[in-house]
Amino acid sequence: MKTTLQVQLAARPGPEGPALQNFALCDVPLRAPGAGEVLLETLYLSLDPYMRARMYEGANYAASAALGAPMPGATIARVGTSNADGFAPGDLVESAHGWQSHHVASPDTLRPIPDTGLPVTTELGVLGMAGHTGYGGLLRYGRPQKGETVLVSAASGAVGSVVGQVARIKGCRVIGIASGEQKCRYLTDELGFDVALDRRDPWFDAKLAAACETGIDVYFDNVGGEIFAATIPLLNTGARIAVCGTISVDRNQPPAQGTDRLTMLHSAILVKQLSLQGFLYTGLLDMTEAFRRDMTAWIASGELRYREDIVDGLENAPEAFLRLFTGENFGKSIVRVAHA
Amino acid sequence: MKTTLQVQLAARPGPEGPALQNFALCDVPLRAPGAGEVLLETLYLSLDPYMRARMYEGANYAASAALGAPMPGATIARVGTSNADGFAPGDLVESAHGWQSHHVASPDTLRPIPDTGLPVTTELGVLGMAGHTGYGGLLRYGRPQKGETVLVSAASGAVGSVVGQVARIKGCRVIGIASGEQKCRYLTDELGFDVALDRRDPWFDAKLAAACETGIDVYFDNVGGEIFAATIPLLNTGARIAVCGTISVDRNQPPAQGTDRLTMLHSAILVKQLSLQGFLYTGLLDMTEAFRRDMTAWIASGELRYREDIVDGLENAPEAFLRLFTGENFGKSIVRVAHA
Predict the structure, then answer these.
(1) Are the CB atoms for B143 and B112 separated by under 8 Å?
(2) Which residue among A237, A259, A277 places its CB closest to the CB of B275?
(3) Contact B152, B163 (CB under 8 A)
(4) Strand partners, A102
(5) Is residue B61 predicted with pLDDT exceeding 80?
(6) How far apart are the CA of B4 and the nearest CA of chain A, in angstroms?
(7) Is A6 helix (H, G, I), strand (E, B) or coil?
(8) pTM for the complete prediction?
(9) A228 contacts in B (CB within 8 Å)?
(10) Domain residue spans in chain A?
(11) What average pLDDT score do residues A79-101 get?
């Protein structure tokens, strides 16, 4: 009998947050595809920060992952056996079958991968959810105008690197926050950011304030936490904050004690007439055509670059996933589950 | 020589916030109007919560009031001597010359008062800045849809009463928060709110949660502070928060200590895809025509009501002003400086 190798959620995270012992590698029997179904072999698995919230019990914008089931996630897969019209063995599709090597799927859950001339992994990164989130979130909620200052956190990541480059293409002054010198150099030397700031720098707050001397017009926030708090006094009147992620904060952990900054933020919203908008990728799907057209053109012309951090082997997914939260990954995090 | 009676800012507020001893009543010499100028006699002075922030030194969206100068504020005035084309003695105008009985003005700072058939005081309240703020802020930033739940704080006030009634007219379920039973009865019995909640009720939090059982779609926030915090868990996905005021919080006083709720709010913004927009009246001026047309029609048809809290005598302005922050005023707060 055929099996699928799964990385399952074995236990929910404890007070320290997600750890290797929360995951289990299991080989699970897989039924044959029925009428109208296809058998998929996973080639690539996307690792994304949103998966952390799914590991916990309780409400989020999506259901939490079940114990003893594979972790959720987007994949690029190859069709093996096909009992479905329009799908032939060897076809490449995007599926959302999570951290596993094989899957039996109904075609309505699959997106055929178009031929863009770019590596298929881009469909999980710069041309996938991450790129779409950065492109759409910046343009729709950041509303950057030529000459404005755009700040983006987690700027060398899959979302942030798109945000900063699109802002540059739109004529903005772009400031990126990343962790470590290597990523900062990448932002300025390869992606054309005007300023890159290392969040680990002991003088980070002072350097951020100096870089934003004329104020921030758009803050694309991937991280929340202390960096979000540090931007508030630097925002210009009428600034837009696109709230995309909270990678720096595990919101299932207890809140900090000290000064309650809720009123500080509320006052800033009023006094500076700020706009804050939380959003998900799913609210940007109407922009798909413009997104793919602009991005493929910018990549082809060399105006927009991307970087992927590909790890080999499904068994290494948990470790690669945990690196998202320490800033050790560098570029869009992808697991190569099988060779194409 | 002619004089003008002024209520001046005599001292900036101390740690307890604004108090009577911060004000002084002074009779000040007034020059005669020059070429192209008019002499104004103040009939009515508008008292508004924003004036508190002006009493402090330091940045806000507007300059702080100067010591030894009259407190700022909008007035309805009658033209006395006129050396300006288009202005005749007896004409009524809106001016922004603050807490004083007379003023020499240039015509470009004046708005002639149109004849609406309503008392002239409405030009400072339901047809003035307060009404415009409520109408425009709700429609532009709250974006209420028929059948949605709209919550408004300081709901019996000049802004809040307009917000709630416009939301009702737009087909929403309307919940208002006010202080005291009398104001709550006014909301349900006279203004047609679905639910009114007394913020002084010891069971306020539980009653708010019960009233918002199906969640809040729009929160029009006039107060900030603990009521703002209490709404966050009750907001629906996609909810809009129009941030209009912080009357419950004197932002020049030190922040509270305890749990830092900044991250709680940030997470809610992301997870529920919230929209928060701070705004000022000045950003809504393009809606003036629709505002005046709709409001005068609704008032004429009896669909929308208003209430004014008129105090006699400029010397009583400080006391009336302080009542804004204790919830003792009931309706739009106006000082009658001279009889029309």
Answers:
(1) no
(2) A277
(3) yes
(4) A41
(5) no
(6) 32
(7) strand
(8) 0.92
(9) 262, 266
(10) 3-125+306-336, 129-286+292-298
(11) 97
CB contact under 8 A, B283 and A267: no
CATH topology of domain A129-286+292-298: Rossmann fold (3.40.50)
Contact B266 A224 (CB under 8 A): yes
CATH fold, domain B129-301, is Rossmann fold (3.40.50)
Q: Nearest CA to A142 among A159, A123, A128? A: A159
Q: Same CATH topology for A3-125+306-336 and A129-286+292-298?
A: no
Say which range, A252-266, B40-54, B242-256, B301-315, has the weakest mean pLDDT. B242-256
Indicate whether B138 pLDDT > 90.
yes
The residues, any chain, with a CB within 8 Å of residue A104's CB and separated by 6 or more, are A30, A31, A32, A33, A34, A37, A38, A39, A40
Tell how strand A235-243 and strand A257-259 pair up. unpaired
- Classified as helix, coil or strand, A74 is coil
Tell whether A282 is within 8 A of chain B (Cβ). no
Tokens of B159: 């802004």
Residue in the block written with tokens 């006039």: B222
Q: Between the CA atoms of B66, B96, B45 and B82, what dihedral angle is there, to the nearest 10 degrees?
A: 120
pLDDT at residue A100 in the model: 98
User: Shortest CB distance from B259 goes to which of A249, A257, A269?
Assistant: A257
Across the interface, whether the CB atoms of B266 and A246 are under 8 A apart is answered yes
| Best mutation target, A249, A264, A267, A274, to test chain B (most B CBs within 10 A) | A267
Judge: B277–A274 Cβ closer than 8 Å, yes or no. Answer: yes
Q: How far is B264 from chain A (nearest CA, A)?
A: 8
- Residue B233 contacts A, CB cutoff 8 Å: no
A260:B255 CB<8 A: yes
Read out DSSP for A268-284?
Answer: HHHHTT-EEEE--GGGG
In B, which residues are within 8 Å of A260 by CB distance? Answer: 255-262
pLDDT score for A59: 56
Six-digit token pair at B301? 């048809």
Residue type, B6: Q
Residue B59, pLDDT > 60, answer no
Pairs of residues, one from chain A and one from chain B, whose beta carbons lie less than 8 Å apart: 138
> What distance in Å separates the CA atoms of residue A278 and residue B196, rounded to the nearest whole number?
29
Percent of chain B whose pLDDT exceeds 70: 99
Q: Give the Å distances, CA to CA, from A166 to A3, A144, A146, A212, A277.
A: 43, 10, 12, 19, 19
In angstroms, rounded to a whole number, what is the distance separating the alpha carbons of residues B247 and A289?
A: 46
Are B270 and A244 spatial neighbours (Cβ–Cβ below 8 Å)? yes
What is A3-125+306-336's CATH topology?
Quinone Oxidoreductase; Chain A, domain 1 (3.90.180)
Confidence of residue A327 (pLDDT cuts 50, 70, 90): confident
pLDDT value at residue A137: 98
Taking a contact as any Cβ pair under 8 Å apart, which residues of chain B between 242 and 271 contact chain A? 243-246, 249, 251, 255-271
Please list the alpha-helical segments (H only) found in chain B.
51-54, 129-137, 160-169, 181-185, 204-211, 225-231, 262-271, 288-301, 317-323
User: Whole-angstrom Cα distance, residue A295 to residue A248?
Assistant: 28
Q: Is B330 within 8 Å of B182 (Cβ atoms)?
A: yes
What is the distance between the alpha carbons of residues A228 and A237, in angstroms, rounded to a whole number?
A: 17
Q: Which residue reads 């996307």 in tokens?
A: A46
> Mind telling me how many Å the CA of A124 is from chain B's nearest CA?
22
